[in-house]
Structure formats: C-alpha cells, structure tokens
Amino acid sequence: MAELHRSAKNRKGFYVKMKFFRPKNGKPEKPFLLRYFKWVLWFSLSFYFFAKFLNNHEPNATNLKTTMINQSHRALSESVLQESNHNHGLLNDMKVYIYELPSKYNRDWLSNERCSNHLFASEVAIHRALMNSDFRTFDPSEADFFFVPVYVSCNFSTVNGFPAIGHARGLLSSAVDFISSELPFWNRSNGSDHVFVASHDFGACFHAMEDRAIADGMPGFMKNSIILQTFGVKYQHPCQNNESIVIPPYISAKNVQSTLSKSPIEGRRDIFSFFRGKMEVHPKNISGRFYSKRVRTEILRKYRNDRRFYLKRHRFRGYQSEIVRSVFCLCPLGWAPWSPRLVESVALGCIPVIIADGIRLPFESTVPWSKISLTVQEKHVSKLGDILDHVAATNLSAIQRNLRDPELRRALLFHDDVEAGDATWKVLVSLSMKLGRSHRRSRVSGE
Fold first, then answer.
1. Domains in the chain, start-ordered, CATH in brackets?
2. What's the whole-number average pLDDT of the chain?
3. pLDDT above 90: percentage of residues in the chain
4. Which tens digits make up the pLDDT trace of 235-246?
5. 78: which residues sit within 8 A by CB, 6+ positions away?
6. Which of 148, 195, 205, 268 shows a CA-CA span of 20 to 30 A to 65?
7. Rounded to an integer, what distance in angstroms lies between the CA atom of residue 216 and that of residue 238?
8. Confidence category of residue 286, pLDDT binned at 50, 70, 90
9. Strand partners, 244
C-alpha cells in the first residue's frame, strides 16, 4: 500500500481518497466502512423497518375506503343484531288471538294453489305462521291483538287471471258481523286492536285503480283497525288513514333458496341493469289512465338500445335467474308504487333501484333501505344511465356487501313458521311497538 501511495503521489485527487489507508503506529488502518460497520448496519436496519412501518400504515385512499366499507358493514351487522335482541324483549309477553272463521272466509280459497303463492299471498302466509307460533293465545281475554283471517286476494279473474277484489268489502263486512256477534272484543274496542291484511295495490281501499280507490275510500268499519298492507306513501292518502303497517309483498322463500343454490349471491353479475315486466309503448291503455305514470315507457324508449340495460317485456318463469346475475334491478311503480321486485332484488343480492315518488318501504324503521338500495325520482328517469354509472364508480362494493347480509334477506321473506327476524316476526315487532305500557298493565291486571 505504501508503494501505491508513492506512485500516486502526484495524483492529488487519488492521494486524498487513499489517505484513509495510511499506516498508523506502524499498523495498517482499517477502511472507514469496516471501522464503523456496526453503526452503518444499525442505521440501515432502523431506516428499513421505519420505512416499512410507514408504508403499511399510510392512510392512502384505497386503504381508507376499504377500512370505511368494512367499518360500515360491521356497524350494519351490529345494528341488525342489536335490533334483533331488543325485539326479543319487546315480544316476550305479546299475545295474538286468531278468530276461527267459517271456511268460506279463508280455507275454501286454498283450493286454488295460486292463492298461497301469488304476490298478494302475504295474507295467507301471515295467518299460517301465526297459527303455529308461540305468540298465539287461545284465550281472547289475555290477547293484545285479534287477527281476522280473511283472504280477499284469492278470487282470480277468468278473463285475465289477475285477482278480482270487487267482493272484498262484502266479505270483510260479513266477517266483522260474525266476530262481533260471537264475541265481545270487537265492540269493546270498536275494532282498534283488530288486525287485517290488505296485500294488494291500494290496500284497504280495495281497488286496483288509484282514482277509484280514493273515491271509494276505506270501509268505515275498518277505519279504527290495524291494516297490514303492501301499499304505503309518505304523504296524506285516503287509503292509509288508519293504523297501518307496510309489509312486503309475498315472494316464496323456497324459490329464492332454489335460485341461490344454483347461482350463489356472490357469483358473477354480467347484467348491469335489469328489468322484466310490463312496459307499454303507448301507456294510455285503461280508461284513459297512464300506466306507471309513463315511467316504464320512458325507460323503454330511452334505454332499449343501450347495451347497459337488459329490458324484457314478456313473462319468463325463471326470471329470478336473471336477477341473481344483475347488478342493478329497476323497481319502477306500476299502477301502485310498490312492487314484488323490491323483495326479489334484496333477496337475490341485486341493488333495487326504486322509482316511485313518496313510497313508504316495508319495515322502514328496522330495514336500512338507504344502505341497500337507490332511489331515483320519477322526473329523473331520463338520467338513469348516468346515475347508475356514478354509483358503479363510487360506492357499489359497499352496497353489494350490505346486501349479502342474510338478516336483511330474512326480514323481507315469509315462512311457514315464524322465524326470528323474518317478515312475520317484523310484523309482530311493529304491532308490539303500538302497545302502550298502560295497555300491558291493564291486560295483566285484568282491568
């Protein structure tokens, strides 16, 4: 090394670099990196682990969005669980008395199989579930509520196959005459603790056309009673001028389960926006009335050639297999605001797009509709494509994740027996909320 130093003596730059190698006390000096190796190693490792920590914990947009979605989903599940636990307490001692009516009011109608499977069949499903439930009492003196099982939606027209409900008022009036003459409980409360089901277009007004339903109004003898009806709006309406509970239309839980067994809810969804149903090219088709307030016609005209939209006008028995493949399911109003598509969409994991201004949705106080659906105003239907594109680009994953919660699916389906959290259970919870403490005390004390 000494020779190298002398031969390079006149190369000043090189000399400066090599001066670290000068002998000291007659011994060669270690290179700088070797002398400070431990310190260099410590610094390098510390910097590496510190940088890795920052990288793993940096709140970038993707991580933050994922965290927020997961927290939202956990909050939704915890909310449903807390609500379920709370409802168990509410229902602890509630009792329902079911009137034993002559078969002409209910059982005779079941000779037609459609009666218990039609979209209006919640009147049958609720009756069946209550008959076998622990909430039923055979002692009317201890009942909180009295259920009047009259099936009014099972009289199917031979002309078009749709339910004909012209007989509904007379059948119900006859049933009330029967129960008020046989037992004192109707007259005692003037029917205010009696429960009926009106599971069709405009509920307790018993007509499929809104103007006629409004003109006829509700039967006077039912105005004090509690009506379980699929119809509901958030504004004043003659067909809900009473104690009413908005319930879901009937969709067979077995059919839903069969569809999901073939196509899981987490499966591929290759249809962006789906609708199958009545869409009139010329909507003014019944006595001068405009079907769907022209909404469905506007959807057909605007989007029938748009590849994002899968629109079909004809019936197809296996249409649930299309719903489970779809991202968005359009739920526009028909003659009435509500639609069975609301239930089918949620049950099969398709985001319901509700197009019905002012609609009241089933069990709004317990089902988090804002987290599992979209609402589009009727006047904005021409912007539907842009609206759905925006949602798909922003919070689509969060809504889909919420829809996969089985508790939400259970809440909108009726079963043969009451199941905790199912649609009949939700009906009982809604009834229980109407009970005041004074009513409970008077029932227990026999006052």
1. 2-57 (no CATH), 95-250+418-445 (no CATH), 253-411 (3.40.50)
2. 84
3. 68
4. 999 999 878 999
5. none
6. 268
7. 9
8. confident
9. 227
* 343 and 322 Cβ atoms separated by less than 8 Å: no
State pLDDT tens for residues 37-91: 556 566 666 665 555 544 544 444 333 343 344 444 455 554 444 455 445 556 8
Give the 3-state DSSP-derived string for the chain, with helices as H, strands as E and coil as C. CHHHHHHCCCCHHHHHHHHHHCCECCECCCCHHHHCHHHHHHHHHHHHHHHHHHHHHCCCHHHHHHHHHHHHHHHHHHHHHHHHHHHHHHCCCCCEEECCCCHHHCHHHHHCHHHHCCCCCHHHHHHHHHHCCCCEECCHHHCCEEECCCCCCCCECCCCCCECCCCHHHHHHHHHHHHHHHCCHHHHHCCCCEEEEECCCCHHHCCCCHHHHHHHCCCHHHCCCEEEECCCECCCCHHHCCEEEECCCCCCHHHHHHHHHHCCCCCCCCEEEEEECCCCCCCEEECCEEHHHHHHHHHHHHHCCCCCEEEECCCCCCCHHHHCCEEEEEEECCCCCCCCHHHHHHHCCCEEEEECCCECCCCCCCCCHHHHCEECCHHHHHHHHHHHHHHHHCCHHHHHHHHCCHHHHHHCCCCCCCCCCCHHHHHHHHHHHCCCHHHHHHHHHCC
| pLDDT above 80 for 20 | no
Which among 135, 390, 401 has a CA at the least distance from the CA of 266?
401
45-54 exposure pattern, b = at least 16 Cβ within 10 A, e = fewer:
eeeeeeeeee
Between CA 308 and CA 248 the distance in angstroms is 29
Which residue bears the tokens 């190796």?
37
Rounded Cα distance, 1 and 22, in Å: 8
Length of the chain: 447
Strand partners, 310: 274
Q: By the 8 A CB rule, do 271 and 327 touch?
A: yes
Structure confidence by residue, pLDDT tens digits, 141-192? 999 999 999 999 998 887 777 888 999 999 999 999 999 999 999 999 999 9
pLDDT of 68: 40
Tell me what the mean pLDDT of segment 80-106 comes to: 77
- Nearest C-alpha neighbor of 427 from the set 186, 226, 192: 226
| Integer angstrom CA distances of residue 275 from 29, 328, 352, 396 | 85, 9, 11, 19
